[in-house]
Automatic annotation (TrEMBL):
It is found in: Membrane. It comes from the Bacteria. Keywords: Kinase, Membrane, Phosphoprotein, Transferase, Transmembrane, Transmembrane helix, Two-component regulatory system. The lineage of its organism: Bacteria, Pseudomonadati, Pseudomonadota, Alphaproteobacteria, Hyphomicrobiales. GO terms for molecular function: phosphorelay sensor kinase activity; protein dimerization activity. This is Histidine kinase. GO terms for cellular component: membrane. SMART domains: HAMP (SM00304), HATPase_c (SM00387). Residues 185-237 form the HAMP domain. The chain crosses the membrane at residues 13-34, 165-185.
Length: 461
């Protein structure tokens, strides 16, 4: 499974809201700057019209009084009431030369705009652009009235206005994000309950149910979750019941097979040994050369009876309910130590009081240990196998470790691991099997004591 980065839904939605809000602020700022630029140029056009009209009146007055002294153009009268910081008034003749120019000084701004903003603003709006109006008297063009503003002044004014928007954005955006995050946290609070419910379902607590939610979407999830939990609980109960019946049937078949082997095959082997003994006595008197064959038959029958005795012990274990789990497991381990002839060493340790353990759990634990020891000794070729059985207040833990070959559990255990899993599942327990890094394997079984409330496997059939 790929490891993908995880993002909190509230944070992701809040960031998206912040990005959309910032984009809206940027659009509003751009609209404001465009509107302000147009208003500034419209103002320059109006001033240029006023200057041109004033100059036309001056030229008309000169021609009317026929004054030989001409002070045209004279921008002083108009500059008295239109001048602003950074504004320049000029008269450009028809030859293109500036005949008169009047500019007002501009104080250095207290907070000059950043160079990046200055370059950005000048590239988009051209703040030094002039506004010109022709000066026409009696149909003849005398020149142009030219009005302009120093680019630095217009840029500083634009930055001053944009700064107020940025200040508003700096205050409003974090506040908006905080409010959105709080609203999302409140609206998505039920998702914590959904996550907790899923975690409990994953832990095999199928009794988990979600409460009603206010949101329609979450209510639909709640209905689907509860329906799924009910279906899983029903399916698991049916599976557990079927597993108990199958295990009970398997144990009954083993007992039946053990009886058949003991009654038929065991008696036949005993008869063969008796016949071999009788034949040896006859051969000792009449034909001594047959003594070796008679002894071979007897030894073969004895070996088969030993093998049969071990098979019967695995098929029909001692009565765990009468002997107790501790005594039965100690006998099982002692039997394996005796049969291994020093090739494999088995050890077992108990921690807890197992006298009151129900027969259902005792029988299943015995079968699990029996299968695990067989796997470790025959399939893993282990030299040391250690068992530890611990009984707590609410569960029983079984740990089996060996130093055998660290192979795949299925290939190593065959159907044995599957049988153990089924027995553990029937008791609502958990089983894990893993290979150790340095060789060997570890089997862990945890069975809740609540499984004792279930009917015994023999009665489940």
């Amino acid at each position: 499974m790929w490891n993908r980065p995880r993002f909190d839904l509230k944070v992701r939605l809040t960031l998206r809201v912040a990005a959309i809000s910032a984009a809206c602020f940027a659009v509003i700022s751009a609209y404001f700057l465009i509107t302000a630029d147009r208003a500034a140029h419209a103002r320059l056009d109006d001033i240029a019209a006023i200057v041109a009209k004033t100059l036309e009146l001056q030229q008309g007055k000169i021609q009317w009084v026929a004054s030989p002294r001409s002070d045209f153009p004279n921008l002083d009268p108009v500059s008295a009431y239109v001048m602003t910081p950074g504004l320049c008034l000029a008269f450009r003749g028809t030859s293109g030369d500036i005949l008169q120019r009047f500019c007002s000084g501009a104080p250095a701004p207290a907070n000059p705009p950043p160079q990046a903003f200055t370059a950005f603003y000048r590239s988009l709006f051209d703040p030094g652009r002039e506004a010109a109006r022709p000066v026409i008297v009696r149909g003849a063009k005398l020149g142009d009235a030219v009005v302009s503003v120093e680019p630095a002044v217009q840029t500083a004014e634009a930055w001053h206005e944009a700064g107020r928007l940025m200040l508003a954005l700096a205050i409003a955006l974090p506040l908006l994000c905080a409010l959105v995050y709080a609203a999302l946290a409140r609206a998505l609070r039920p998702t914590r309950m959904i996550r907790t419910g899923l975690e409990r379902i994953a832990a095999n607590d199928l009794t988990t149910r979600l409460p009603p939610f206010d949101l329609a979407e979450l209510s639909a999830i709640r209905d689907g979750f509860n329906h799924l939990a009910e279906s899983l609980e029903t399916a698991l109960a049916e599976r557990s019941e079927l597993t108990r019946k199958l295990i009970a049937l398997q144990d009954e078949e083993r007992r039946h097979l053990a009886r058949e082997l003991h009654d038929e095959f065991g008696q036949s082997l005993a008869a063969i040994r008796a016949l071999a003994s009788s034949a040896r006595q006859t051969a000792a008197q009449d034909c001594p050369s047959l003594l070796g064959e008679c002894d071979g038959i007897a030894r073969t029958a004895t070996g088969m009876m030993e093998t049969l005795r071990g098979t019967l012990f695995r098929l029909r274990p001692p009565d765990v309910e009468e002997l107790g789990l501790v005594a039965s497991l100690e006998g099982l381990v002692a039997g394996w130590n005796g049969r291994s002839r020093g090739e494999t060493r088995f050890s077992i340790r108990f921690d807890g009081a197992f006298e009151t353990l129900p027969a259902t759990i005792s029988a299943s634990l015995y079968r699990i240990v029996q299968e695990a020891l067989t796997n470790a000794a025959k399939h893993a070729v282990a030299t040391r196998v250690s068992l530890e059985l611990t009984m707590g207040a609410s569960e029983i833990a079984l740990a089996i470790d060996d130093d055998g070959r660290a192979t795949d559990p299925v290939a190593k255990s065959g159907m044995g691991l599957l049988g153990m899993r089924e027995r553990v599942a029937a008791l609502r327990g958990q089983l894990s099997f893993e290979a150790k890094p340095n060789g060997g394997s570890a089997l862990r079984v945890v069975i809740p004591l609540a499984a004792a409330d279930r009917p015994p496997l023999e009665h489940a059939a």
